[in-house]
Write a sequence for this structure.
């Protein structure tokens, strides 16, 4: 999925967002079908790879299509609506999946259900979606695409190998080796793309002109932090089990308040961007998310308190999902909006990959030091 983001963003700008949207939907549907039918784990992984290549760019293409076809005063509203649908999907997906799994006892149905949805989207896209693109006369940077793909694959593989003992993990070759190789490849790609930019009729895969702007780099950094915030959601089921006493098989349903609130927050974010601007909206999002998550360890003892904290955190997370960062990332651009949004999504994906390991490391260290904490308390008594 991380590999597909920058490539799909670039190709959609160059060849047409409708074309790439249709291709992405087809790949996602075929990948889902092959996952459900896979007879071995190797083929299952290959099918998941195909599914991820299709699913990675769908939201990016939708956002860049809005930014390229909708008048500026309505863009924030439409991006907010798109983000709100993301929030609704975050509720419906896991809950419908859990219901179908309980009903059938068959995991294959979780992927087969994507097939009719993909077919419907494919047909609707062909009929209803208009084409938009930023035609480029330059030759497509195939060498850059290959280098970038290998660099992202190496970097993400290294990041996913990080253990709960965060710093100690970097002594392992499958962490430091792959992350180091990814960084070296990205640095090499930067010099290659910079040289390519000076040649006529070339179209580099990296948005070099954007990455030289401090404002855009700050947007990418905020995007990575927003991914880290989103990753905190994975600990909610465990929290409800251990703090509220919810049964393990029902704990996943308790993500619903936060996901619903994020849908509301995304719509609210679009309205706030239109009225107060993207920078105010980003700051408000961070404050709300910080307050909401701080309430979990500092305040929650009962289920109603959990609901309140979840909704505050969810609104904060939702606000940043829809409009503000997308508007900031593409502000002043007449072309390459899909490329700009893809880079932002890639950094968010990296944040979502690193953050759970860091969070889990805090938890693991807490358990490791628990004996010393109890020993101190007993001595005081």
């Amino acid at each position: 999925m991380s590999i597909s983001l920058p490539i799909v963003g670039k190709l959609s700008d160059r060849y047409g967002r409708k074309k790439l949207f249709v291709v992405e939907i087809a790949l996602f549907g075929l990948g889902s079908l092959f996952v459900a039918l896979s007879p071995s784990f190797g083929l299952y992984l290959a099918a998941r790879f195909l599914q991820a290549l299709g699913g990675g760019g769908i939201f990016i293409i939708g956002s860049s299509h809005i930014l390229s076809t909708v008048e500026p005063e309505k863009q924030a509203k439409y991006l907010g609506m798109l983000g709100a649908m993301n929030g609704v999907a975050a509720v419906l997906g896991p809950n419908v999946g859990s219901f179908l799994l309980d009903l059938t006892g068959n995991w294959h149905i979780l992927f087969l259900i994507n097939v009719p949805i993909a077919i419907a989207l494919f047909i609707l896209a062909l009929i209803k979606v208009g084409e938009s693109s930023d035609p480029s006369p330059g030759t497509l940077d195939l060498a850059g695409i290959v280098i970038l793909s290998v660099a992202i694959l190496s970097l993400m593989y290294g990041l996913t190998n990080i253990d709960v003992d965060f710093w100690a993990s970097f002594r392992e070759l499958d962490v430091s080796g792959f992350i180091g190789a990814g960084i070296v490849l990205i640095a090499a790609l930067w010099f290659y793309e910079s040289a390519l930019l000076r040649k006529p009729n070339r179209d580099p895969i990296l948005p070099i002109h954007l990455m030289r702007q401090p404002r855009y780099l700050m947007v990418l950094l905020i995007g990575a932090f927003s991914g880290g915030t989103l990753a905190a959601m994975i600990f909610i089921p465990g929290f409800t089990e251990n703090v509220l006493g919810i049964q393990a098989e029902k704990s996943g349903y308790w993500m619903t308040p936060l996901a619903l609130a994020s849908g509301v927050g995304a719509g609210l974010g679009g309205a706030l961007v239109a009225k107060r601007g993207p920078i105010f909206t980003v700051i408000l999002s961070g404050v709300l998310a910080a307050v909401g998550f701080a309430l979990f360890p500092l305040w929650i003892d009962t289920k109603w308190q959990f609901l309140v904290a979840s909704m505050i955190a969810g609104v904060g997370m939702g606000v940043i999902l829809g409009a503000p960062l997308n508007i900031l990332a593409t502000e002043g651009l007449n072309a390459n909006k899909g490329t700009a949004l893809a880079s932002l999504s890639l950094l968010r994906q990296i944040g979502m990959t690193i953050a759970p390991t860091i969070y889990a490391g805090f938890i693991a260290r807490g358990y490791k030091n628990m004996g010393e904490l109890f020993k101190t308390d007993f001595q005081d008594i």
In short: The chain has a mean pLDDT of 86.
